[in-house]
Amino acid sequence: MAESKYGKYIVTELKSPHPPEFEEAYSKWAKRILWMDNKVVDGAFQMNCAWYLKPPTPVPDWMKGNHTHDADEIIGFFSSDPDNAYDLGGEVEFWLEDEQHIITKSCMIFVPGGMRHCPLILKRVNRPIFHFSTVTIGQYRLLRDGEK
Q: Is residue 12, in this structure, part of any structural domain at all?
């Protein structure tokens, strides 16, 4: 983005907080588009978005567990077919506390701060699924059982 008074608020390139080996493994089944947090733009809350292209095989360990956040989170899964916007074109297994949900329609999920959620398992991807998550704090920080 060209230098200007407010251009610093516009992010057009991926600035991932993850190490290159994580991004390389992730790229085998998904395409991360953008990441924003307070390290990318001072004062921003965390948001990231990606295209899910196929189920990962094997499922990475970090996707298998559950976690919480100190702050609220919104997670979205969207169809890539504008003519059938509510048909996800795939199947996502997602857990809220001890409830399993099988998602086959475009959706947004509100996860209140402190609610245990995940695993997130891509069961089927017939066409790309747009995914985003946003956490209302400056950086994505997950807490595994017993962490503070």
A: no
pLDDT one-digit tens code per residue, 4-23: 999 999 999 999 998 999 89
What residues have CB less than 8 Å from 34, skipping those under 6 apart? 11, 12, 13, 14, 48, 49
If one counts the domains in the chain, the total is: 1
How do residues 52-105 score in pLDDT, each as one tens digit?
999 998 888 878 889 898 899 999 999 999 999 999 999 999 999 999 999 999
Claim: this prediction has a pTM higher than 0.85: yes
Structural domain span for residue 117: 20-135
Which CATH number characterizes residue 34's domain?
2.60.120.10
HSE (side-chain half, CA atoms, 13 Å) at 27: 10
CA distances (Å), 111 to each of 9, 30, 60, in order? 26, 23, 22
**Does a structural domain hold residue 14?**
no
Rounded Cα–Cα distance for residues 97 and 106 (Å)? 21
Alpha carbon distance 72, 86 (integer Å): 25
> CA 88, CA 118: separation in Å to the nearest integer?
19
